[in-house]
Amino acid sequence: MPLLTVGHRGVMGVEPENTLRSFVRAEREGLDVIELDLHLSKDGALVVMHDADVARTTDGAGPIGELTLAQLRALDAGHGERVPVFEEVVDAVRSPLQAEIKDRAAARVLADTIKRRELHDRVTVISFHAEALRETREHLPDIPLVLVAGRSSPTAPERARELGAGMISLELRHVDADIVGRAHAAGIKVISWTVNTDEDLARVRELGLDGVVTDMPGIRAAAGAPA
Description:
alpha/beta
């Protein structure tokens, strides 16, 4: 069966991560879903960036939460790209989105945006943080949720079931057959990150996973091929 393919921060292996350029490229390359990360700016804008600090991915410095949207807009996020806000991504691509809450404070703002823009059928809310997913569920009772985990992957199936999450997204090196079996027995799908090589993909198929999160557009074709 073809695997679900999720473009990690767009296709960050070939484009500046979490930029409109990266998201548009991911859609053009045929990735099934586009993943992005959310923080709040100092003035409450829902900003698309992975780190809490802008230094790694822009030509600026400082925590996102201490910068206004106007200050963030002045930064170069790679190849002249600007730091986008969530609604710009919604408008730039038509693909389903996995919106990862990096800061619990962003959960309510995201929920309000999903309601206002009627995005319930297009956005899945994902997070490492159970509190963020619980708060999302309070505001959006029917929204799909994904629990993300790294070293805590062994307990993810049970935590996801308690949260009402229908999928877990786990770091590949921490996944084993027992975790996958418990998740599938509970009706929970399992995807893994970050799958960028044929070797990674072979491990995904060996484990019987449902999908992959990848930086590389070429994985899309390989994931759709027979095992």
